[in-house]
Every structure is written in C-alpha cells, then in structure tokens.
Amino acid sequence: MLTQCGILSVILGLIYISAGSEAPDVSPKFVNIAPASQVLLGNTLYFIENKVPMHWFGARKFCEGMGYNLISLDTTEKVEAIKTYLDSQRDKNIYWTSGNDLLTPDHVWFPSGKPVASELWHPNEPNNYGGIEHCDNFGHGPSRLMNDLDCTHKQNYICERTLK
To answer: Within a domain: residue 69?
Structure first.
C-alpha cells in the first residue's frame, strides 16, 4: 500500500514525464582543482604539491592517505633527481620534507629514522630558531638547501612512493 507521500511522488513524476520536459541538469559542476603533479624519477613516484600549502602534519597525513610519505632526501641519487626535475620546471618553491627532530635530538627522515646529511643544510641550519623549528624544508637558493622551520607554517610539499 502506497503512502500519501508515495502516491504524490508517483503522480508528480507522471505529470513531469507527460509534459515532455527534459530532466534538469543536476550534475555537480566540477572544477579541476588537481593541486599537484606526479612524476616518475627512477623507481620513485613523486606527488608535487605546489598550489595548496599545508602545515607539516597535514602534509604528512595527506601523503600517507595516498599511500605515500613526505619526501626523504636520503640518497645522493634522489637529491640530484628531484633537484634536476624542479630546476627543469623552473620551480622555485620551497617544500616540506619528512625530516624533523620531533622525537629525537637530531634531525632524521621519517619514517626511516636515518639522519639528515649535514651537507643538505643551508649554512647555520638547523638552528631551531626561537625553540620552535622542528620540521625540515628544502629549496632554499640555487642549491636548494634545507632549513628547519616551525611545523605549523603552511608550505608546499612533496610526497614520494618507491615502486617495486
């Protein structure tokens, strides 16, 4: 047995159909807001976000939600590959890395725990300026050196996933 509301819905539907009207376009209007590009360098896939900056924790969570990690510049090959790619794109942005000293006295790559190489740092960095700089970014100057920064600062970021 149809309820009054159900009967009314059927009647209105029949009236609409019999009127010969086309159904209104109720599809959502999507805008391409794809915030990042993906690039394969060697056996690593990078997701480069340079449109929607996030604080370090948000960037890390975003990367992990896609099955990636924030980039770890833990090999010379990886450092050179990403620098060369960004230079070829004329990309002057500064990006979060996975480096931090949140749980250790020294800066390490997350999640591996490998130490951040000293030659990657901008002169006089890391300095933990103001006692609040615990997350690491890179891209400073033509050599794209690293700096420690307050983790709540919003910045671009690069996610990485090694392919097998």
So the answer is: yes
